[in-house]
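FIELD: query
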Amino acid sequence: MRPPYSRVMDIGIIRVEHGRVVERFSTLLNPGTRIPPSIQSFTTIREEDVARAPQFEDVALQVEELLKDAVFVAHNAAFDFNFMQHEFKRLDMPFAPERLCTVALSRALYPDARGHSLDAVIARHGLTAPIRHRALPDAEAVWDFMQDAAMHTPEARLADAVHRVRTGRATRFPAKETLSTLPDSAGVYLFYGPDEELLYVGKSKHVRSRARSHFARTDMQGKRITDDARSVSAVRTSGELSALILEASLIKKQQPLYNRALRKRKTLVIARKRLEDGYAHVALERADAESPGEDVLAVFRTTTQGKAKLRVLAKEYGICHKLLGIEEAKTACFARQLGQCDGACLGKASAQVHNARIEEAFKARKLRTWPYRGPVLITEAESESAGTVFLIDNWILAGCYRYDGEDYSPLVEPSQAFDYDTYKILARYLLDSRNGKSVRVLTAREHDELIARLEGAEADIAYVLD
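FIELD: result
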């Protein structure tokens, strides 16, 4: 999704002259690189489909001729234009046609319409589009929209809308216009793209202010979000904890384009401890994300991140590289030869001292044991009668419900498995002594009564993204 680094693999062009289609062109392209599974799923184009397809350089002259002396029209035209521009740039060919964005045209012609994604336009105008997210069918849908708009819009109004869009007097950041509708309270905010696809999910104690701050970002990631976004919406929460929980849940479930850190993982890279001849040894290994097992000292997102952290800990705490698992050696580790290891790898250092260093080094990153006798109930009050309750058992989020008086509705789906990101959120909250008044340990009877009460709540949580 990043033009300078990604490649075009599907081109569809309809050349229109004086209101009449004079030529259609469509081809798959071999991008010269692998196609990520998410893109394969989105477009239905698989690597075997493009293996024998031409490369862009093979069709560049034909594409150039088709676009010659024409206005470049596309839904979210800047997106398609940037990809084409970079493809031509790789061949040292100029590419700078005039552009017309039909997202902007739709907004100009139908300002009261709820959505302006291509799907929304197709539905609003009763167009037929049997295949979506493929180049030529999408181009056909754009052409059908333009014809329908021309047929049902007075000529002067249509000409004015086209002029305003083409002269750039349309808002550069259309999503910015939707910020005023957001609450300036705790919650989660969601950036949507031109096809109503979820681009980014964030959370804050002050949603409107935090969402507005994105438009001041100058880093590449920040600019991509605001450049691509067409609207921002929000879900208000009782407080910071429910915002954190909801953000993590939405990212795992919806897989937004620009969120990476909290995406659902099937496996984790863990540092696991084992004892051998009285000395603690550490090894990096992959483990099931829902059941990492015992003796977990730390959790990492990648093996590279894990190894880098182990090297830092070895230096900071004077731990043997061999026993820490970052060096393989039959006898002494190389650090011993440099005088940086006290000889634990040779059994010359105290096992007790070595093991204490391991515990101290991983103290902050170690998965903590559950500190309560049983499940707990956390209450995050928004007012005297409204808020959110969280049912937690052994770090697992067994339930999360909004309440208003005696009415309960689920905020996120309950879980029966361990989730590392949820664990980090809950551990930070539960281990903070300032939150003690909000936490209540439940007896077995109280737990069963609460479960029965909550299970009667409405099961549908789709409203979170409505």
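FIELD: remark
The mean pLDDT is 87.
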